[in-house]
Amino acid sequence: MRILRYLKNALRKGILFAKNVDHQSIEVYTDADWVSAVDDRRSTSGYFTFVGGNLVTWKSKKQNVIARSSAEAEFKGMTLGLCEALWLRLLLQDLGYLSKQLIRLFCDNKAAYEIAHNQVQHDRTKHVEVDRFFIKEKLDDEIVELPKI
Q: 76 in a domain, yes or no?
């Protein structure tokens, strides 16, 4: 019943897709809330993606493991958002849009940014190693860029 009430009240709501020449650009904005859940101290991460300046996907998810730092929580969110962006890029390629543009991945955590660009693995960042290598590989292959915010 709640769904029907929502649909009835949302008749005039929607998402506007702007006409854009740069329709192949993909941007991902990620964020995480470190140890936000009081009951189990799991972090929540989320992202939203834009293709050609239009919002196309978004997600918020409680992380499966407890992050030991805010950087780790942010990194898990970055990985989640990047996977979505890579899927969108493959979808665009399947539709015939072969883009050479880099995916722009935005994260507001300085430590996560530095870890992503750092070539050296430290003991204190070993617990985020898999996510770091995944993001680093995409940076090195020039598939994604991580602008400083």
A: yes
Specify the number of domains making up the chain. 1
Angstrom distances, CA of residue 73 to CA of 13, 70, 95, 109, 146: 33, 5, 34, 10, 17
* Domain contains 38: yes
Give the Cα separation of 111 and 144 in Å (integer). 18
**Dist CA 136 CA 146 (whole Å):** 10
What does pTM read for this prediction?
0.74
Token duo for residue 31: 């964020």
Contact 57, 84 (CB under 8 A): yes
Q: What is the pLDDT of residues 49-60, one digit of tens each?
A: 999 888 999 999
Give the C-alpha separation, 123 to 115, whole Å: 12
26 Cβ partners below 8 Å, 6+ apart? 49, 50, 51, 85, 88, 89, 92, 99, 101, 103, 104
Q: What is the CATH number of the domain that holds 126?
A: 3.30.420.10
